[in-house]
Every structure is written in C-alpha cells, then in structure tokens.
Amino acid sequence: MTGSARFAGTVVLVTGGASGIGRVTAMRAANEGADVGILDRNGAAAEALAAELRAGGHRAVAAEADVTDAPAVEAAVGAIVADLGPVGVLVNNAGATHAQSFEDMTPALWRADIELNLNGAYFVARAAIPSILLRGGGAIVNVATVNALTAISEPAYSAAKAGMLQLTRQLAVEYGPRGIRANAVIPGSIRTPIWDHRLARQPNLLEVLQRWYPVGRVGAPEDVAAVILFLASADAGFVNGASLVVDGGLMAGLPQMTRDLLAAASGQG
Questions:
Q1: What pTM does this model have?
Q2: Residue 157 annotated among the catalytic residues of the structure
Q3: In Å, how far are 16, 81, 96, 131, 189 from 194, measured between CA atoms?
Q4: Per-domain residue ranges for the chain?
Q5: CATH placement of domain 11-268
Q6: Can 175 be counted among the known catalytic residues?
C-alpha cells in the first residue's frame, strides 16, 4: 500500500529509525501519509533522513537519544510530540548484539544487551504511552527476532528479545481496553548495515545463510517494514498481543537438514 494514505494524520515514532529496518519503515510510513518522528542515537543520520523526508513534502523530525537512557528518551519523545503532536504509532526497532556465544559473554556485555534490547523498549514505551492515550489510542509494534524463539547464538540478545515478546503481551492486555494495540514482528536474517562487519570477514555469508530459508533468500528491510505497518494500521484492528514471524519459513522447519539427510540417504543407496 505504499503511496496510500492509511496513516494520514498519524504520528509514527520509529526508534533506530536512521538505518536498516527503521529507516525503511519511517520512509514507507511517510509515503503513506504519516508524520514521522525518527529517534536514533546517531543524531546526524536521523536528521539527514528527516531532512530528506521534509524535502519530499512530508512532516518529519529527528531526535537524538540512546534508548538505554530513560531521561534522554523522555526528552526526545517530548520534543517529537511538541513538534508533531501526540504519537499514534510507536515502532520499537532499536537493537543490537554484542556477543555471539555464552562463553564470550561477560557480565558487562550481558547487561548491555539486556539494557538496549529489552529495557530500551520499555523506556520508549513508557515515554510514549501517555501521548498515545492522550490521542485516544494507537498501536505499538515491537521488533524482535527469531533468536527469541530458538537457540541460535547471541544469548543475551536472544533472551532480551524473548522478554520483548512477553512485554508485548503485557502491553496488549493492559492497554487494549484503553485503545492501544501491541504486537511484535519476529524477523529472520535481514540484510541491513548490521551485517557489514560480518560480510567484511566472510563475503559469502548471506549466500550460506539463504540455504536455510525455504524461500531461497534472506530478507530485506522492506519485507519487515511492510508487516510492521500492517500491524500498526487499521487493517490489523483486531490483532492484539500477536507475534508475527517474518522469516521466509525458517521457523517452519529444517530444510537444510532435510536436504542433507536426503543427500546422505541417496549416497548410501
């Protein structure tokens, strides 16, 4: 529905909105009529995107804040509301990981991942919900990961995102009667700038990963943004407390294991 006006008159606030899934979500929301607030710890990149959107005729503002800093989040959300009006849609997208294995995980790295990926979502929701209530209701969409559903790697990040799914359910039940729906998206591997440092070491990594996916490819930010905005829209008006997997079928089965087993069986025959 890009180019439609289903978010006309709605303020959409996107955390981690300067790059990756957040950037595409912000741009698509603007193209669908939204006034966009871009909250990112990279203030220059957030302002560059806001300026780009304004040049295209959209209302957009940027606010710099680290989502782990609750007072800074309160100030940033307040500045966006003061400029654009009450928030109608919150997209909790900011997140990252710092350690691949439990053995590599130090207490400091554990705390950093929990703080960013779980506590940050709480801080932003806490800051934005009064504005959404003042507006008369709206939607929250939290961006999790398939790591929240099964053990892959990145234990603290995975645990934090699993906590985010429970936070989503809690918000849905507590605020649903007050007009706020809360849902989550659960992406698989998505080609965003977060992969750049890995690809520098292993240029064929995404080609390796795509063998896991029944659709034969890893995802693009547009794949996730489309689902985020569906859940945020009136089209999903009776969807509340859901966690929607956006992973090309990864969690539906083990296709590479099946292929390997069939190949082994064929070789034995």
A1: 0.90
A2: yes
A3: 12, 29, 8, 31, 11
A4: 11-268
A5: 3.40.50.720
A6: no
